[in-house]
Amino acid sequence: MSKWIPFILIGAFILVLFIMPLLFRSPVQTSTTVEIPSSEKVCEITIKVADADAPISLEEYVVGVVAAEMPANFHPEALKAQAIAARTYVLQTTNYGESEIEPTVARQVYYDQTVRQNNWQSAYLENEQKIREAVKNTEGEVIVYNDELITAMFHSMSNGMTESAKNYSGNDLPYLQPVASTDFQYATNYEVTKTFTINEWNERLGVNWTLKQVDQLKLTRNNTGRVDTVSLQNKVWTGREFRTLLDLRSTDFNIDVSGETIIVTTEGFGHGVGMSQYGADAMAKQGSTAHQILNHYYKNTKIEKKSCLWK
Hints:
Layout: H1 5-23, E1 46-47, E2 56-57, H2 58-69, H3 76-94, H4 113-120, H5 124-136, E3 141-145, E4 148-149, E5 154-155, H6 165-169, E6 191-196, H7 198-205, H8 211-214, E7 218-221, E8 227-232, E9 235-238, H9 239-246, E10 253-258, E11 261-267, E12 275-276, H10 277-285, H11 290-297, E13 302-305
Parallel strand pairs: 5-12
Antiparallel strand pairs: 1-2, 3-4, 3-13, 6-11, 7-8, 8-9, 10-11
Helix pairs in contact: 2-3, 2-5, 3-5, 3-10, 3-11
């Protein structure tokens, strides 16, 4: 046995050298959680919709806007374009969710799930899935110009040309310029007439005219064919003012007197600025993608997919 003692001592010495460092190591980390700085933890933007009970997640809000603003039977690429425009508009308008937004036509109409169910009835599941797919497939995508979110205005139906921001508001924006729009090819209610008696006409405009005077109205038009001014002697309205007073569908209108009736015929629907929704559907049916649609209506812009951190 004595001849094995040196080998035993050597083995014991090596074992001690191996074990000792382990005894003085810090405890093993059992958690795989990685702490993220608090400034990077909030990835989900919420939108404060006026009169809503609680803020709504951005993507859920976009679902409600697309459902309210565009017919669910439109082409999927048109729905995608609407989702990107709606997402861009709300982020730019509310400064990434810091301020609230009205769910009205003055901003963006929003329908919650209850309203969507009531509106769609038996088609709810089909329509809901279609719109959610459009939103999911464009998640995080926004429209930018010079690395800034654009004011992504949109309207229902143009008159063959979209309106410029300068004509509409006096504020010239390089990405909101007139472009051709062929939505009238598919729209069934492109041209609509509205009739007034002389009493209704005078009451709405606050005048006391005869039918002969109405027939003498002078209309001037801008470079997109929309009415710029309506005038008679010393009374002058802008096209926008006249549209509001008479509750017309657009500022592209003609006025005719027939017998005892005043007939106003409008073309298109909405202010005409930015993306035409019926035009987007027409382009999609002709093979355009959502990005191609947006690049057509918002000139010299780019589509970017934002990451978790929006700012």
